[in-house]
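Section 5: illustrative case.
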């Protein structure tokens, strides 16, 4: 039984495609004959956030409902505010 192959011909005009910048070409993966010559460096859309010298670590933490609700009620950024309060309690700032 033969499987049908998808149609790989494009139905769009090349004029509709955005032009690549020199930077995109410099960061793109390079292959010749299916062999990887140079891996991609970053993304082709945006560079992203710079790497932190002291990145935060994800942990599981159990808090009282009242504490959690109180911080969540302060709006977006509540997790960062918990971190700031813990740093104050440990006298890590200043």
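Designed sequence:
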């Amino acid at each position: 039984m033969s499987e049908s192959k998808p149609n790989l011909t494009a139905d769009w005009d090349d004029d509709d495609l955005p032009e690549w910048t020199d930077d995109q070409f410099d960061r793109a993966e390079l292959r010749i004959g299916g062999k990887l010559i140079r891996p991609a460096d970053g993304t082709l859309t945006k560079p992203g956030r710079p790497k932190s010298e002291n990145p935060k670590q994800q942990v599981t933490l159990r808090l009282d409902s009242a504490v959690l609700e109180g911080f969540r009620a302060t709006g977006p950024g509540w997790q960062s505010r918990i971190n700031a309060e813990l740093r104050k309690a440990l006298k890590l700032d200043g």
